[in-house]
Amino acid sequence: MLIPEILGFSPQLLLDDIINISNNAVQDGVNGMEEFLEKWVDERAKRQGDDWDSTQEVEQGLVAFQTLLEHHTDLAFDFFEAWSLRNIFVVPLDLPIVVPHQQNLDLTHPPEREQELMDELEDLRKQLDNLLDKAESGGAGGKSVVDTLMERVHEIGRAEQLRTAVEAMGGVRADLDAVDSSKGDDGMEE
Fold first, then answer.
1. ∠ Cα 6 18 32 (to 5°)
2. CA distance 190 to 188
3. Neighbours of 168 (CB within 10 A)
């Protein structure tokens, strides 16, 4: 799934398009051969003046030609497809790649913390739904409680964003410290 995310398209669909284009070219070649043979047969009949009925022989030859051409094309593109998926559209497992939409995510938090936040969020949603129902039915003070809950839900989201930003800044600070430590007294790299 990583390659389609990075490229923005499925490699299999690209390969399918390439194969379809080649199959169309094969069909165009067969159609061109058919036109050539029909002209050749007509010219031969005019030159020789015989009543040779070549329709069946030409059709059998074209079918054999088309079958042979399609077989070899399919075989070649099967190898091409397998090779491409193994060698071109593959990311080694040990290669550290971060896709743009996952940049600055901290995936080191334990699943328990994530589950706690999801549970708290779900509880707040249920409370919010209940209070909205009460507020719509005219319950006293329902609007202020709903507003308070909405603020709490937004605070959770902002807290997570702030935590992620602080962690990213810590990484940038460590990178800057590493660059500073690699420079000598004159400010030039050693």
1. 165
2. 6
3. 14
pLDDT for residue 31: 94
- Beta-strand (E) ranges in 40-175? none
- What span, in angstroms and rounded, lies between the C-alpha atoms of 90 and 97? 12
Token pair listed for 113: 């913390």
CA–CA dist 162, 156 (Å, integer): 10
Between CA 124 and CA 131 the distance in angstroms is: 10
Using CB atoms within 10 A of its CB, is residue 58 exposed (0-12), middle (13-18) or buried (19+)? Answer: middle
User: CB within 8 A of 97, min separation 6: which ones?
Assistant: 2, 6, 91
Long-range contacts of 35-40 (CB under 8 A, 24+ apart): 37/61, 37/62
Nearest to 190 by CA among 174, 33, 181: 181
Counted residue by residue, the chain has a size of: 190
Tokens of 30: 């067969």
Provide the angle, in degrees to the nearest 10, between the axes of the packed helices 111-136 and 142-181.
150
Ordered mean pLDDT values, 10 residues apiece, the chain (190 residues): 78 94 94 92 80 80 93 95 90 79 76 82 84 68 63 68 60 57 51
Token output for 82: 């397998």
**Given the structure tokens 């030159």, which residue do they identify?**
47
DSSP β-bridge partners for residue 183: 189
